[in-house]
Amino acid sequence: MTTPLAEVASSPSTLRAFLHGLPGVDRVGADARAAMLGTRSIKTTAKKQAIDLAIRMVDLTTLEGADTHGKVRAMCAKAVRPDPADSSVPPVAAVCVYPDLVATAVEALTGSGVKVASVATSFPSGRSSLEVKVAETRLAVAAGAAEIDMVIDRGAFLAGDYLKVYEEIVATKEACADAHLKVILETGELATYDNVRRASWLAMIAGADFIKTSTGKVSPAATLPVTLVMLEAVRDFLAATGRKVGVKPAGGIRTTKDAIKYLVLVNETAGPDWLDPDWFRLGASSLLNDLLMQRQKMATGRYAGPDYFTLD
Amino acid sequence: MSERLSVRKTYKLFIGGAFPRSESGRSYAVTSSKGDFLANAARASRKDARDAVAAARKAFPGWSGATAYNRGQILYRIAEMLEGRRAQFVAEITAFGGVGVKQAGEMVDAAVDRLVWYAGWSDKIGAVLGSANPVAGPYFNLSSPEPTGVVAVVAPQVGPLLGLVSVIAPVIATGNTCVVVASERAPLPAITLAEVLATSDLPGGVVNVLTGSAAEIAPWLAGHMDVNGIDLTGADAELAVTCEELAAENLKRVLRPPAGPVNWLADPGIARMTTFLETKTVWHPIGV
């Protein structure tokens, strides 16, 4: 690299030169690699471990206009004790809610070890002024959120105004104070894998603690090849700077089979160091029930039914 | 000029309205009663059973929510399509052996008639089993039959078409969806019936047909927590006991196998329908 990373954001042109100087992604190669890793067969004891690890990595999410305090409390109870009938099921990593519901979640989860994450910065579109975005982030942090999921300004990114995106992330990171910052790239709107790689690096240079694929409001949401590109980016970023960044695919991960494919991808791309809830998360809501059903199937030897698990 | 080779058919499963191969990739040779090779059929695994239950569950809200009249029309449509394939069914039944062309024809006709009979029942069973109950209070009190849910059916091992139709039709006429384990020795009419079902306006997943060993698949269905009832008509005594024990875990409705040989040509009565119905009772205040 010609410019040290600390200086690439000193002007629009150096940032642009750096991001466009990143090696291109071989789309066919990435798709084929992700598909090939998706065929790995994970069975019996390895599957048991994978299911428990996946449960510990889940960010149990509810991001609906219809969310109520009651629903958030119910979800928090489920986050702490996913299967009330089986105390050996570990709690999930975090719950993810809108900023106005953070206080409710914090109250319900105090002392449980489950973190509270909040989306912010005019989620999911990100279409607002920087003042509003920063203020929203401060509100969420003040309410007790330990993690902030921000969205990048995809319009600015696609228009080539990388510095604007960079500065927004820096400003949000500052507003986060001690809270962890997850930067949502919304890869479904970025069009190419090259853009995914650029956005990943942009977010990491700006100070992201996690890079996250999607809001869950845009289709396609998380896909294996996009996550592969992002995992390669965090691996390369660690090598280049010594700073480790986490990855969170979100949206569209509904089955245990899908979740295990992601774990295989993490192990084979970024390495086993990332197989930890501190460095890899799965943003999901319906996935948890499928993990619990698979877990029960392995424990009892009979196929489980959705009637026996809570809906939210 | 060389003699034309006939196209050999590949027999597959019927799950969710599609015809997939077994997830396990297995197949087995189907022979006539004399031991002559007839075809290869898919040997379903427990995972195919799991997929079939998922498909049946998915289809349940739509099918049970359809009007009884509409379900009756679709059953009648199945009868029409089955009639159109009469020759194929007769050929398959006679190829298996044991019956002549005339007798096979009578069995196919009886299967068509059986479907028409159940088609008629679908919008009448509510009137027969439902009731307005006199209660000591200012309420209208109404009871009506509701479908149980997903029903696993172990089809009879003999009487491949008529027996099969006689166990499937009563289950779906009332709004249940089902997973059928076809006769292991004579599965070909079951697969041809699946092709009839696929072209009869029957929504995908209402009937799912698995071929293979009932002893292998049925216990998984009996233990499955998302299956609400099981018809053990085609299970032998040992398998029936195993399945009934497994079915107890989530209190499935169980239809035990018949004590002796069944004459499928006889009047079936409504017992098969009532086994997989629940009674819903509603109290409605008067004068509010």
What is the gist of this entry?
The complex is a heterodimer of chains A (312) and B (288). Chain A contains twelve helices and eight strands.
How would you portray this structure in words?
The complex is a heterodimer of chains A (about 300) and B (about 290). With about 300 residues, chain A is α/β, with parallel strands linked by helices. Chain A has helices at about 10-20, 25-35, 45-55, 70-80, 100-110, 130-140, 155-160, 160-175, 195-205, 225-240, 255-270, 285-300; strands spanning about 60, 95, 115-120, 145-150, 180-185, 210, 245-250, 280-285. In chain A, strands 7-6-5-4-3-2-1-8 form an 8-stranded parallel sheet. In chain A, helix 4 links the parallel strand 1 (about 60) and strand 2 (about 95). In chain A, helix 4 (about 70-80) runs parallel beside helix 5 (about 100-110) and helix 8 (about 160-175) packs across helix 9. Chain A is globular. By secondary structure, chain B is α/β, with parallel strands linked by helices. Chain B has 10 helices and 10 strands. In chain B, the strands form 3 sheets. Chain B has a 5-stranded parallel sheet with strand order 7-6-5-8-9, with helices on both faces. In chain B, strands 3-4-10 form a 3-stranded antiparallel sheet. In chain B, helix 1 crosses helix 8 (about 215-225) and helix 2 packs antiparallel against helix 4. Chain B is globular and about 85 Å long. Classes of the chains: A alpha/beta (about 300), B alpha/beta (about 290). The interface of A and B includes residues 307 and 308 of A.
Features:
heterodimer; A: 312 residues; alpha/beta; TIM Barrel; eight-stranded parallel β-sheet; 12 helices; 8 strands; globular; B: 288 residues; Aldehyde Dehydrogenase, Chain A, domain 1; five-stranded parallel β-sheet; three-stranded antiparallel β-sheet; 10 helices; 18% strand
